[in-house]
Amino acid sequence: MAVNKDPFVRSLNKDGLPVVFRGKVQAGVTQAIKRGEICAYNKTAGYFIPVSAVNDFIYALAIAKEEQKADDLARYIEFYALAPNDQFEFELDAARALALGDTFLLTASYSQILTYSATGYPVARCVDDGHYPQKTDTTIRNRGHAVVSFNPAVTYWGLVLQGSFWGVEKVVATAAALTLYAEMSGLLIKNTGAQGALQHLLPASAPAGTRFRTFNTVAQAHGFSPNSADSIWAKGADNTNDKDVSMDAIADSLEVIADGEGEWLGIAHESGNETASTAVTVQS
Questions:
Q1: Cα separation values, 214 from 74, 187, 199, 200, Å
Q2: Who's near 170: CB < 8 A, 6+ residues apart?
């Protein structure tokens, strides 16, 4: 259960101050928020809510700097934007001998705990060595908390205040179709299940340069579905509005880039083996 605990430790900025902004939250009776909860902007609802209720890779992460109590009205409260120079301390799901650079994921259904992972796409990274041995010993002591900085590719600072994190690409593996937003530009999507065509919904009227890319790890139609008024140009496809496009061979990849005028420019990357598709598939 979330408790009021401000996790801010320090900022490496010259003034020592963290990057803070005001974000909109729902009435407390609908969604109470504790100080120190990792939250995310829910584009569908238009509010910040604790991450236990959302998918971390779709929304911009921030940490509540104040509490939204049950009897508070919908309003704006202060959040830490999670700039790279700002450092925070969070409990871990399991104590471990933390090394500098260890990476963490969000913890399902718990917005104030991080989970160590050496392979998952990280939301935070260990930046503290205070538990390292001081003299000749090489044994790193176990610790149940970690001082971390957050990955700008998933934070409000990186996705919104910076407009995107300078082209950094993020990888997501999914067996379900995603609803994509312009703030997710640069996302590389791996399919993980062969349950039929997998079409990710593209944002309408996306700014020029917004881009997404699929990669096939299974032989499955995998691609994009434009908004009803938008279209996709690609090899073997015209720019008819509201037509889905995909590629279906293992190691095939389809990239789409918005031109800012309602069209997506598709680039087909074929696997180069005997099972490679020669063009994208167009669905009605």
A1: 38, 8, 10, 9
A2: 57, 121, 153, 154, 184, 186, 187, 188
Q: Alpha-carbon distance 195 to 145, whole Å?
A: 40
CATH topology classification for 169-283? Jelly Rolls (2.60.120)
The pLDDT tens digits of the residues spanning 207-247 come to: 888 899 999 998 889 999 998 888 888 766 555 667 888 88
The amino acid at residue 119 is T
For 35, phi and psi rounded to 5 degrees?
Answer: -60, 125
CB atoms within 10 A of CB 53: 13
Query: With 60 as the cut, is the pLDDT of residue 76 above it?
Result: yes
What residue ranges do the domains of the chain occupy?
1-162, 169-283
Backbone angles phi, psi at 156, to 5 degrees: -60, -40
